[in-house]
Amino acid sequence: MKLGFRTKLSYGIGGICDNTLYTLSGTYLLLFLTTVAGVSPAMAGTITAIGSIWEALCAPVVGYLSDNTLSRFGKRKPFLIAAAFPVAIVTSLMFTTIDAGPAFKAIYYTGMIIFFWTAFSTEFISYMAWGSDLTDDYDERTVLRSYAYVFNQVGMCIGMVLPTMIVDYCMNIGRTLQQSWQTVGIVAGVSGCVALLVCALTITKDDNKNFVKPQNRQKINLFAMFSSIIKDYLNILKLRPIRFILGASIVYLIANTIFSSDRVFYMTYNLGMSQTQISLMMFIITASGVAFVPFIAKLSAVFDKKTVFMAGIGISGVLMIAGRFLGVESLAAVIAICLIYSVANTCYWQLMPSMLYDVCEVEELVSGKKHSGSVISLQALSESLSIALGMQALGIALELAGFASEQAVQPEGALLWVNNMFTLVPGIFMILVFVIMTKYPINKKIFHKVMEAKEMKDAGKEVDLTELKKIF
């Protein structure tokens, strides 16, 4: 099903929110907690890991509820609207510095990050699942995700490029470092809120215009809900495509989390770059991501999105490892690494969701009912766990290497591991992603066979699934 330009544009705008929150937390939260809020690196890593684990717990619930929601506005839209204002409030509070002892700080920031990931999960799962509902066309899904990814880059600019610029500006007009970072939280939170409202309120395609309010609204049975979630997950995990998608996601996002959180440390302490130069690097990543979108979309239409995905991330991994041994000590070398990373990141965020939507069709063929929210939430759960692992690994590595947040000059051991986490470790993980995806069974030809089988099944005809057996 082809979508109109307005629908694709509106859906794309919603992508501002999730990438603003994701890149802000992934790039600056660990830095904020350690160097601004005064939390120890190990504790900061633990706090961020707790938040990711909490998101992993929220994702299944949101996925289940959005799959089973009945409203005049459809399944997904109500969740985007419900998350909008909490996103603005909690993001502001999470980047607020409090004057308290270590124990109270740990409690406060743990609470804030739990609220933050609850709001994020509510909007992200619903937003991603909505893309599967809007179109079932193999190539149109890549086009829809291309719109989303372009606006993801706007979100990346807000969450990754603007913060250092805002901090510089605020401090130049007499604000404290703490007040400057609070302003960052406010700007990011309000931007995410507005993006969600625009997306939700301007798309009417998914509205249920014939909705009749049930006379007897059933209460939610928590035991039945969690039993159903577990049952759905077990059935979904039986499918070979989802296992490879989840494996690739976990490995890539560990690499992405480590690189995204470490790069500010590397640019600040290893290279001594100014906030302006760091902002430039972040802008290059953002701008290049937008520039790569049409090329990746075109290549995916010609060579299949699985092939493009594997090539982009695999080659990027090899070049990241090469960068570690060749040395990344000049501005040109940092730009090169940022561009290499941007290729891999664009491939992941533009193509992975589109491939995940295809898995939703396979799941519907097997189960007889579409569980897009559950499929998306299962993948989001893996993302949460990988973010937790990546954050915890980086925090522990910095702690063991002797990183001291109060020192402007770090010891050699700390600088060595900041370097490794910027190039070598992400590169190794990207190559592992390539290896995993060689086993992923769905391509354009297989997908069309899946859709033909679904149409026959919906028409009440007998379906021979022999040819598709290898993907079940």
| CATH H-level superfamily | MFS general substrate transporter like domains
Mean pLDDT over the residues = 86
Distance between the termini: 25 Å
CATH topology: Growth Hormone, Chain: A
Rg calculated over all Cα atoms: 22 Å
Low-confidence stretches: none
Helix content class: over 70%
Give the topology string: H per helix, E per strand: HHHHHHHHHHHHHHH
| CATH class category label | Mainly Alpha
Work out the count of structural domains: 1
Query: Main beta sheet: strand number and arrangement?
Result: none
Strand content: under 5%
Structural class: mainly alpha
CATH architecture: Up-down Bundle
* Overall shape: globular
Number of helices: 15
Q: Based on DSSP secondary structure assignment, what is the total number of beta strands?
A: 0
The oligomeric state is single chain
Give your account of this protein's structure.
The chain has 15 helices and no strands. The chain is mostly helical. The chain has one domain (8-205, 237-471): Growth Hormone, Chain: A. Helix 1 (5-35) crosses helix 5 and helix 4 (102-134) packs antiparallel against helix 12 (372-400).
How do the helices and strands line up, and which of them pair or pack?
Elements: H1 5-35, H2 41-67, H3 77-94, H4 102-134, H5 138-172, H6 177-202, H7 222-237, H8 240-270, H9 275-303, H10 305-326, H11 331-367, H12 372-400, H13 412-422, H14 424-437, H15 444-458
